[in-house]
Design a protein that fits this description.
heterotrimer; A mainly alpha (292); B mainly alpha (318); C alpha+beta (450); A: 292 residues; mainly alpha; 16 helices; B: 318 residues; 1% strand
């Protein structure tokens, strides 16, 4: 790819030098291309198998013949994928809204307001992020049972409205980069903290808020343990993760082609989302250096 | 001092205190979502699970009964507990360094080409986006007997294991699945690698340092804080490894076969889940959770204690 | 600081006590008036079962019959639910009205913990005399210490399936009756591919292989799970050690010293455990000469349109236990009403229908290929005239046939046992006797947690 450009640029060089440049460029790219193949192959296998007939998927063939496009309609008949998707979207959207709304003020207080004890609270926030969720899971489960929330989406969505440590952390880091002058100027103009947060800080922190929203949405989309635990056997609130995890147990045979079609349907939305929001995403990852 | 100034000073002090209280109230208002969330979702559950861990508590609708150290004693003799702990330590001890090494290799490969870096980065990162359940379902097929990897290995006359059907190969299979989704660490490492000042390398070139020496003496120390951070996070999350193993064991072994094959994918949290939310030994599950917490804390503490020996901080904590 | 910590802790305890107090359910029984003049508000019963795919649809047909009989009761049926799902539903107050388990493994646990309702009041109210309706073999595994919290609806019986063509080719005319014969036949029937992998397995004794695990439940060797004091007898009853030693020798003699890994490869080439419920199942695909399997395989062979030419018979027994030939492991679907089921009275109507209605029993037994569990339905001519099926009716009727003992730890003992056998097969148990003592103490320890 880039090798061609390199050659043009080096026209003035000697033949010997040109050959060395070319070899170097090939060497530089060959490693990356090798890894590209490694990373792309699983996708290729999955997509190709999702287009095979049931019989062919059981063979060693790599290329579908004929192309069984019907798999993508069959799989919707086999599993209520539309309902799974709807539930997943409801969970992800509401939880994302909740996390953003509740985390912004907390992050603001932890970064742009001065008060004693700020450091302690910040450490507590970080500590909750490191706490293995298993430590709290049993009492929460008991609590949600007593609230009759098991079998509903409430245990997944309600907690999102009470701040998320990772999002608070990420937003705080970003808020700290906003120049003090802008905040001070607003203070001089007589704006109160609430106004400063919304009109100055949030406006400037849009990329960070986008990243937080994106992370939370993806977290919910991929979340398995919580929906599994709190669904309590109510199939009507199975998310894609929970519903499809039982694909093999539901269809005791080996419907590889449809299983792969279901996987593709499950991964395509996030991949599209990633391609469009790549910049915000990678900036977010780089900003924190923390798993999302 | 006149009385007037005294009162004025008192007034001012009162005003200041009122303002301080007011500002604390504002802070509290801003923090309120987190405070409620902290008490509701962390403080209370932590205390409660600590209490539960000392009780016999079989079933949500029954009352927990004080049982002293029963659950902890049971744990000592519970071989599946030890099996799950061993499996978990295996995946943490091998998986974490392997992931870091692989992510670093990828990040390094990304620094080589001058153009097209963005495209490669996107491709390397894409698998990280794939939901864990979808990735696990996919790898069940890819590593299946008669699946693509098997076919390729056979074509190359390399002995082909049965991966998720074979107790010796199921964990390596999960490692491969993990390596496929190593993108986040890769991006962080890439940023760190590109952050290393070029002057350092130029100076090393002048002194005739080899590529390995440059890596060993410049790159590694410069990116060591990031590596350290990744290792800590890797360990914390590694001990909570659940989803992939759950899906893979049920997918290859059928319903009710957590840990399949032969308990080789029975990880700590899977046994905890089985005991807590399938057998409903809630007290035992709580005890296991606290032991997990202690293990994770201990590992993190050891990492931080020893970090000064191998982590190089350019200027203060990043 | 310390004092604050204690204060918080105390506050937590108080909150906790408030949260965990209460619970429990009453066990009063109300009856549904089924006389012709009675009027009823419509009710929807939710039924959870372990069934999937074809079997699920066939079961549904009988539930539809029930709806036709009691038009105001609609039945909504959910597939692929395990005992763990039932327990979780009871614990979270999301129970169905009826729970159908694949086997009696957890009956004692369900009865003892109060997860399911004791059906005795219903039975008394309807003036039923269970022992005159349901054979004792089936009743035995549906109650625990007088608490009849489930009823049997269809049973399973485990026997030998063998491939006629392969027997003929090898010149074998009668089925094996002892484990020694099983071994020598298996050796004759096993064939290999050119790369030394197994082409046709004579018999696969691995406990995780399809239903072969039933061989290690004691019926065929006369092994006792628990001694008279209720302690695990795996180390004290010598039949267990000799069974496992027989298995190890079997694998070496039939498949060679690397037999274990050959069998592993063979199993994964069939498609692993999942293939059991698909046409790729090894016996159906003609890759296994002899198999230990349940009576339902007859229906799978029929419905998968497998071309396998086969005969069924009782499974061979240990040479020292020759008198037991003809018996086998039995024990099938058990149905209960969760303690917090929304409509227990109507649920009982359905449960009674499934468990005692001759028409329903026969229809289920014929379509699913299971052993019916009432005296009347057991006389069904169709089942009795099916040469493939008849042996299973005989196994079921054999007084020595049984399910393993039921205990309050549910399936935990069999889980630990089969996990031990897995280790043993893989060569991870250097000292058999020590290993057996260990698994026995593991099981005994489980009773602490219950």
């Amino acid at each position: 790819m880039a090798a061609g450009a390199g050659v043009i640029a080096s026209r003035r060089m000697t033949a010997e030098g040109r050959r060395r440049r070319l070899l170097l460029a090939i060497g530089r790219h060959s490693i990356a291309i090798f890894f590209t193949i490694v990373f792309v192959m699983p996708f290729v296998f999955v997509v190709l198998t999702s287009l095979m007939t049931r019989q062919q998927a059981l063979t060693r063939d790599m290329w579908p013949h004929p192309f069984a496009w019907g798999n993508y309609t069959d799989v919707f008949r086999l599993e209520p994928i539309l309902r799974y998707t709807w539930v997943t979207v409801v969970y992800a959207v509401l939880a994302t809204v909740g996390v953003v709304l509740s985390s912004v003020p907390v992050a603001y207080a932890l970064s742009r307001m001065r008060w004693r004890g700020r450091g302690v609270i910040f450490i507590l926030v970080i500590a909750t992020m490191m706490l293995p969720s298993q430590v709290t899971i049993v009492p929460l489960y008991v609590l949600f049972v007593r609230l009759h929330w098991i079998g509903t989406l409430k245990p997944l969505i309600v907690p999102a409205f009470f701040g998320d440590a990772f999002s608070i952390f990420l937003l705080r880091q970003f808020f700290l980069t906003i120049p003090e002058d802008l905040v001070d100027a607003a203070r001089v103009d007589g704006a109160n903290e609430w106004q400063i947060m919304w009109n100055v800080v949030v406006k400037l922190a849009k990329p960070a808020i986008a990243a937080v929203g994106l992370f939370e949405f993806l977290y919910c989309w991929n979340d398995f343990f919580n929906p599994l635990l709190y669904a309590g056997g109510n199939q009507n609130i199975y998310t894609l993760s929970v519903g499809l995890s039982q694909f093999t147990t539901h269809h005791r045979g080996t419907l590889w082609n449809l299983q792969m079609a279901a996987s593709v349907i499950f991964m395509v939305p996030v991949i599209i989302l990633f391609i469009f929001a790549q910049k915000a995403f990678i900036e977010g990852v780089t900003l924190t250096g923390v798993k999302g | 001092m006149s009385v007037a100034t005294q009162t004025r000073a008192a007034e001012r002090q009162k005003l200041r205190r009122r303002r301080a209280i007011r500002s604390y109230m504002v802070v509290t208002a801003f923090l309120s979502p987190w405070i409620i969330g902290f008490v509701w979702f962390y403080l209370y559950p932590m205390l409660a699970s600590l209490y539960f861990s000392f009780t016999k508590y079989d079933g949500v609708l029954q009352a927990p009964q004080w049982a002293g150290l029963l659950n902890y004693r049971h744990m000592v003799g519970d071989q599946l507990f030890w099996k799950s702990l061993k499996n978990t330590i295996w995946i943490v001890a091998i998986g974490t360094p392997l992931n870091i090494l692989f992510a670093l290799t990828l990040a390094w490969a990304l620094t080589l080409p001058r153009r097209g870096r963005g495209i490669y980065r996107t491709i390397f990162f894409l698998p990280t986006m794939v939901p864990a359940v979808a990735a696990a379902l996919s790898f069940l097929f890819i590593l299946n007997h008669g699946g693509p990897v098997d076919t390729i290995l056979r074509f190359l006359h390399i002995p082909s294991p049965s991966w998720f059907q074979d107790a010796n190969w199921s964990k390596p299979g999960l490692l491969l699945l993990g390596l496929w989704g190593v993108g986040e660490a890769m991006i962080i490492f890439l940023a760190a690698l590109l952050d290393v000042p070029v002057q350092l390398y130029e100076a090393a070139d002048i002194e005739g340092a080899s590529a390995w020496q440059k890596f060993r003496l410049i790159t590694l120390p410069m990116i060591s804080p990031v590596l350290f951070f990744s290792a800590v996070i890797g360990i914390i999350y590694g001990f909570q490894y659940f989803t992939e193993a759950y899906v893979v064991s049920l997918g290859s072994g059928g319903a009710g076969s957590l840990g399949f094959p032969n308990g080789s994918t029975l990880f700590y949290t899977i046994w905890l889940y089985q005991q807590g939310f399938e057998a409903f030994h809630l007290g035992y599950a709580s005890a296991m959770a606290w032991v997990l917490f202690a293990i994770v804390m201990a590992c993190t503490a050891v990492m931080i204690k020893t970090s000064s020996r191998w982590v190089f901080y350019q200027g203060g904590f990043r | 600081m310390k004092r604050i910590g204690i204060a918080i802790l105390a506050a937590g305890m108080v909150a906790l006590a408030a949260c965990t107090a209460g619970g429990g359910t009453s066990s009063s029984v109300s009856a549904v008036d089924t006389s012709s003049g009675a009027t009823h508000a419509p009710v929807t019963l939710s039924v959870w079962s372990f069934y999937t795919s074809r079997e699920f649809d066939q079961y549904k047909a009988v539930l539809d019959d029930f709806h036709a009989k009691y038009p105001w009761i609609t039945v909504s049926s959910t597939p692929a639910k395990s005992d763990q799902d039932f327990l979780r539903a009871v614990n979270t107050g999301t129970s169905p009205d009826i729970a159908i388990s694949a086997g009696p493994d957890n009956v004692a646990k369900f009865c003892d913990s109060g997860a399911y309702k004791d059906l005795t009041p219903f039975i008394q109210q309807d003036g039923m005399d269970l022992p005159s309706i349901i054979p004792d073999q089936a009743l035995r595994y549906t109650s625990y210490k007088g608490n009849q919290c489930t009823l049997p609806v269809l049973s399973d019986a485990y026997g030998l399936y063998y491939n006629n063509d392969m027997f003929q080719q090898a010149g074998i005319t009668v089925p094996p009756k002892t484990l020694t014969q099983l071994e020598s036949y298996a050796k004759q029937l096993t064939t290999y591919n050119t790369d030394h992998s197994i082409k046709v397995a004579g018999f696969v004794p691995l406990s995780a292989f399809y239903e072969s695990g039933a061989l290690y439940n004691g019926v065929y060797t006369g092994g006792q799970w628990y001694d008279s004091s209720g302690k695990s007898a795996f180390a004290t009853d010598p039949t267990w050690a000799s069974l496992l030693q027989w298995q190890k020798d079997f694998i070496t003699n039939v498949y060679g010293t690397d037999g274990y890994s050959k069998l592993q490869d063979f199993f994964s080439s069939l498609g692993g455990p999942n293939s059991e419920w698909s046409p790729a199942q090894g016996f159906e695909s003609g890759q296994i000469a002899m198999a230990l399997d349940g009576e339902w395989r007859t229906a799978f062979i029929r419905d998968d349109k497998s071309k396998v030419n086969y005969t069924t018979a009782p499974f061979p027994v240990a040479d020292a236990n020759a008198a037991a030939y003809g018996a086998g492991q039995i024990g099938g679907d058990v149905i209960g009403i969760p303690s917090n089921a929304p409509h227990p009275a109507e649920a009982w109507l359905l449960l009674k229908y499934l468990a005692t209605d001759t028409g329903a029993e026969v229809k289920l037994a014929e379509t699913l290929g299971n052993v019916p569990t009432t005296y009347d339905s057991l006389k069904d001519p169709t089942l009795n005239q099916d040469p493939h099926f008849k042996p299973f009716l005989d196994i079921f009727a054999n007084p020595k046939s049984a399910f393993k003992p039921l205990t309050v730890i549910g399936q935990t003992d069999s889980d630990l046992w089969s996990s031990f056998i897995d280790d043993w097969e893989a060569g991870k148990v250097p000292d058999l006797q020590k290993g057996l003592a260990n698994v026995a103490s593991q099981i005994d320890q489980q009773f602490q947690l219950g």
